[in-house]
Design brief:
Helix content: 25-40%
CATH class of the largest domain: Alpha Beta
Distance between the termini: 70 Å
Number of strands: 16
CATH topology of the largest domain: TIM Barrel
Strand order of the largest sheet: 5-4-3-2-1-8-7-6
Number of domains: 2
Number of helices: 10
Largest sheet: 8 strands, parallel
Structural class: alpha/beta
Shape: globular
Strand content: 15-25%
Order of helices and strands: HHEHHHEHEHEHEEEHEHEEEEEEEE
CATH superfamily of the largest domain: Glycosidases
Radius of gyration: 23 Å
């Protein structure tokens, strides 16, 4: 009877939340603008799955039982973890924020949560609050911190079984959504009251119930309202691959630029919204650490990805999977270092910019800021740079110059179209021409 009354109260609270339409606060709108201007962030997928060195879905893909998987916590001792070193390397790369996986689908919490013993303080010998150390380092370095939180749990019986985690040894007869929902909100409350200012909560897992015969109700309005009550400026994003839901402050695209669907994740109804946009992509092939995945994207490829994402008016959230010993992989650190060199020269063409008059194409992309259009000539690998590019422009430009040298660039203007002659010798991997409107 007590559980029945609790369930009734839960749904009454939900109906109350549903009746309200989200109106962002001034603080939230300001944070949206800050986020929109950031352009570059680093995603960190790290948990006990790193000990298997097979990626973050190892429990789903390989281990037959959650109890066997949980034993990895006993061996999780990342003795070389140094939050300040992580943050400095990321900051030096030109990134403006970090998004960290506080709890992935395997249910292991990377902070000192009081809601479950399955966490880094109680279940592992490491006994250090990684989220706290990372939050402290971010705050000291002026780096915004976003927190990833999975709606899925492959280990808890109270999480209603979805289309993943079916072979992990859960007892589906013990499913209890109101209880699980209360657990999640208690954890989110911890994250938003104990670790200072949080830039965003980044949800994942909505798609786990996208094939249910009866549509699953995640009760997001109530959860979103809780987050905005605890930290009004905190942004909410949800990797559901749909058009944004009411209460969300940003739109997320996984492994694709906004408006594209090469990865096959995006729902047909997921139009590009007016909200700040973010594309998340891996530096190599996996999100979590996988020892055999050394196929990292080249520096030139990463620069093109960053430019093309900005050319769509979005941020790039570039992922790294830290090693089980607590270090960032050497190849990832190398890529960060090279990106930092490029960003120190060309970062001003991206930070605070909007999408330019030409969408990303085989020769490059355009960004725009303060009356200047930045034309990035960065052709796809294996393609030659064009001898010239043409773009729409309502009025004749005041001048067209080379970004690096400041020298004038030859152009013609006719019928509201600007044609720019591309120099035979280009700066690689990106040559920038500035068009002053």
């Amino acid at each position: 009877m007590k559980r029945t009354l609790s369930t009734i109260a839960f749904f009454l609270c939900f109906l109350g939340a549903m009746a309200q339409t989200y109106v962002p606060t001034k603080e939230n709108l300001a944070e949206r603008e800050n986020f929109r201007n950031a352009k570059f962030g680093i995603f960190l997928h790290w948990g006990i799955y790193s000990t298997f060195a097979q990626g973050e879905w190892y429990l789903q893909n390989a281990v037959p039982d959650r109890m066997e998987y949980a034993k990895a916590a006993d061996a999780f001792y990342p003795h070389r973890f140094n939050a300040h070193e992580w943050v400095r390397a990321i900051k030096d790369a030109g990134a403006k924020y970090i998004c960290f996986t506080t709890r992935h689908h395997d249910g292991f919490s990377m902070w000192d949560t009081k809601q479950s013993d399955y966490n880094i303080m109680k279940a592992s010998p490491f006994k250090r609050d990684v989220v706290k150390e990372l939050a402290d380092a971010c705050h000291e370095e002026g780096m915004r911190l976003h927190l990833y939180y999975s709606h899925i749990d492959w280990t808890r019986d109270d999480y209603p079984m979805g289309r993943t985690g079916r072979h992990c040894g859960k007892d589906s007869t013990k499913s209890d959504w109101p209880h699980y929902f209360k657990f999640m909100n208690a954890q989110l409350t911890e994250l938003l009251t104990r670790y200072g200012k949080i830039g965003a909560i980044w949800f994942d897992g909505w798609w786990d119930h996208d094939q249910d015969s009866v549509p699953f109700n995640w009760h997001l309005p109530e959860q979103y309202a809780l987050i905005h009550k605890l930290q009004p400026a905190c942004l909410i994003g949800n990797n559901h691959h749909m058009k944004p839901f009411d209460g969300e402050d940003m739109q997320i695209f996984e492994r694709d630029l906004p408006g594209e669907n090469t990865a096959g994740f995006v729902d047909k109804a997921a139009q590009i919204s007016h909200l700040p946009l973010e594309t998340c992509q891996t530096m190599n092939g996996m999100w979590g650490y996988k020892v055999v995945d050394q196929n990292y994207k080249s520096v030139a490829e990463l620069i093109r990805l960053l430019i093309n994402t900005s050319g769509k008016g979005a941020n790039l959230l570039l992922n790294i999977g830290p090693q089980p010993n607590g270090e960032l992989p050497a190849l990832a650190l190398d890529r960060l270092k090279e990106l930092g060199k490029w960003m120190r020269v060309y970062g001003e063409t991206l930070y605070g910019s909007v999408a330019g008059p030409m969408k990303p194409c085989e020769w490059g992309a355009t960004t725009e800021k303060n009356g200047k259009v930045y034309v990035h000539i960065c052709p796809d690998e294996g393609r030659k740079a064009p001898s010239g590019v043409t773009m729409p422009m309502a009025k004749k430009p005041k001048e067209v110059t080379d970004f690096q040298t400041g020298k004038k660039v030859t152009y013609t203007y006719k019928n509201k179209e600007l044609h720019i002659a591309i120099p035979a010798t280009l700066t690689t991997p990106d040559h920038v021409i500035v068009v002053k409107r």
